[in-house]
């Protein structure tokens, strides 16, 4: 049957690459937003999804006059972190996307997480486009705001063109074993050169994951979901992974953010009776406050066995639980969602850090978490510690911790936790 615009789903595009290559900035440039400057330490530490409607892409590519026939309703773009601890989020991102943009800093060439991203993409056979970003940093670059790249290149001096060719050639030499062909688009996330080309290449390519738990005023607890396949309806029975086991509930409301805004940005929402993939969606339902962000969401179909689905929903927690030290001695680790928790556990396990973990929690630090961490006061005093990342500490929990002598270290940048913990240990030794 002839495919019409209505029955094609939007492709999912994942942005990957080494830290600070400009992944978030590129998205900001396309959206006309400023998410990157609002990030703690300028670092992306979670997955973020944005929906680009077809109209917007059409507008941004019109100068290329290519027949940018958009057969899809739009494009769902997923941002990922570049810091090394976040392999899990890059892996998740590359696992759910149809196509990827691999961002490379033209001044730095191939870097460790560029290679890691390449390997993830190759492993899954995912096609990708290389955005050779920060061309505006070539010495003497003449800014041609938001211009197609060939037009911008024509404006450049011989020296700029030479430096560009030299850096491009280096990239080829350093990536000899790749052997495959892929598109490279020079871009600048600051002045916008090459962005039309990048979008056009994406257009020329034409099939569930819980992102985070948040309370939206008026809707109770909601979860952010990237719908990769199929359709969701109001009233569908769903199963998600929870701290105390699988949560079975019913969708009360299906909400989406206005287009061109990232799901994590606050705002008003559009209501839907049903939603088709691929989109970033907010789901309101009872019992979701204990849902573990970063895990899959299952819809219970008429022919499905509920017990099988409940078991499948808990799979994602297995790897996290396997990180708890068998000796029972270690710090207590708490994070906002599963992804950052996995990243934090990964970081604590690395040889340079090597801190044992005895317990984990997701969401704000409550009294029960302090109680669990306090068990270490008797065993190993320095471990009577909660390392908390990107979460709030409930005032009663703080009070209890102070009374009992449990230390709470809280940060919005994972890497700072180690320094704080190390200083604490050195302090105890004195
Ligand atoms: P992580 O998410 O932490 O891995 O970084 P990222 O890849 O998202 O990079 P980000 O967008 O945070 O940009 C890193 C820095 O590079 C910021 O200071 C940006 O302003 C700068 N930057 C990004 N793109 C460009 C560009 O095209 N040109 C120039 N000159 N600077 C850029
Ligand atoms: Na950054
Ligand atoms: Mg970023």
Give the helix/strand layout:
Elements: E1 12-17, H1 23-31, H2 35-38, E2 48-53, H3 54-61, E3 74-79, H4 87-96, E4 99-105, H5 112-123, E5 127-133, H6 149-154, H7 158-174, E6 183-186, H8 195-203, E7 209-216, E8 220-227, E9 231-233, E10 237-240, E11 247-250, E12 253-257, E13 269-272, E14 274-276, E15 279-284, E16 297-299, H9 306-313, H10 317-321, E17 331-335, H11 338-349, E18 357-362, H12 367-374, H13 376-379, E19 385-389, H14 395-404, E20 407-411, H15 414-429
Parallel strand pairs: 1-3, 1-4, 4-5, 5-6, 17-18, 17-19, 19-20
Antiparallel strand pairs: 2-3, 7-8, 8-15, 9-14, 10-11, 10-16, 12-13, 12-15
The structure holds guanosine-5'-triphosphate, sodium ion and magnesium ion.
Sodium ion binds at residues 20, 42-43.
Major beta sheet summary:
6 strands, mixed
Number of helices: 15
Kindly report the average pLDDT value: 84
Radius of gyration: 23 Å
How many β-strand stretches? 20
Residue windows where pLDDT falls under 50 for at least 5 positions: 1-6, 207-215
Cofactors and ligands present?
A: guanosine-5'-triphosphate, sodium ion, magnesium ion
The strand order across the widest sheet is 2-3-1-4-5-6
Quickly give the structural class.
Answer: alpha/beta
* Coarse shape: globular
Please state roughly what percent of the residues sit in beta strands, choosing from under 5%, 5-15%, 15-25%, 25-35%, 35-45% or over 45%. 15-25%
Helix content: 25-40%
The oligomerization state is: single chain
Distance between the termini: 76 Å
């Amino acid at each position: 049957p002839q495919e019409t615009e209505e029955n094609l789903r939007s492709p999912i595009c994942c942005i990957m690459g080494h830290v600070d290559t400009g992944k978030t900035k590129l998205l900001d440039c396309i959206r006309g937003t400023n998410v990157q400057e609002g990030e703690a330490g300028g670092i992306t530490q979670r997955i973020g999804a944005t929906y680009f409607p077809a109209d917007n892409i059409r507008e941004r590519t019109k100068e290329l006059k290519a027949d940018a026939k958009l057969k899809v309703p739009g494009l769902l773009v997923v941002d990922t972190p570049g810091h090394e601890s976040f392999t899990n989020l890059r892996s998740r991102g590359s696992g759910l996307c149809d196509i990827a943009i691999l961002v490379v800093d033209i001044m730095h060439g191939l870097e460790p997480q560029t290679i890691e991203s390449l390997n993830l993409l190759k492993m899954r056979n995912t096609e990708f486009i290389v955005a050779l970003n920060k061309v505006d940093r070539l010495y003497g670059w003449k800014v041609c705001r938001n211009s197609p790249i060939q037009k911008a290149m024509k404006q450049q001096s011989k020296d700029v063109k030479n430096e560009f060719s030299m850096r491009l050639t280096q990239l080829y030499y350093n990536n000899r074993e790749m052997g495959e062909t892929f598109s490279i688009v020079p871009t600048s996330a600051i002045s916008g050169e090459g962005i039309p080309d990048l979008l056009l290449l994406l257009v020329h390519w034409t099939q569930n994951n819980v992102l985070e738990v948040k309370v939206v005023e008026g809707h109770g607890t909601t979860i952010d979901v990237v719908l990769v396949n199929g359709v969701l309806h109001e009233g569908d029975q769903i199963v998600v992974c929870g701290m105390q086991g699988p949560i079975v509930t019913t969708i009360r409301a299906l909400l989406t953010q206005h287009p061109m805004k990232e799901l994590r940005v606050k705002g008003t929402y559009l209501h839907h009776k049903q939603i088709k993939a691929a989109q970033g969606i907010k789901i309101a339902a009872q019992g979701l406050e204990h849902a573990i962000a970063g895990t899959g969401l299952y819809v219970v179909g008429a022919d499905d066995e509920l017990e099988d689905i409940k078991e499948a929903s808990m799979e994602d927690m297995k790897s996290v639980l396997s990180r708890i030290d068998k000796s029972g001695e270690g710090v207590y680790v708490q994070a906002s969602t599963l992804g950052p928790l996995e990243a934090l556990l990964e970081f604590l396990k690395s040889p340079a850090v090597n801190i044992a973990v005895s317990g984990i929690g997701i969401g704000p630090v409550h009294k029960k978490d302090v109680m669990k961490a306090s068990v270490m006061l008797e065993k190993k005093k320095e471990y009577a510690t909660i390392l908390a990342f990107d979460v709030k500490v409930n005032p009663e929990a703080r009070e209890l911790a102070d009374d009992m002598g449990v230390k709470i270290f809280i940060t919005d940048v994972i890497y700072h936790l180690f320094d704080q913990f190390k200083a604490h240990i050195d302090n105890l030794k004195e």
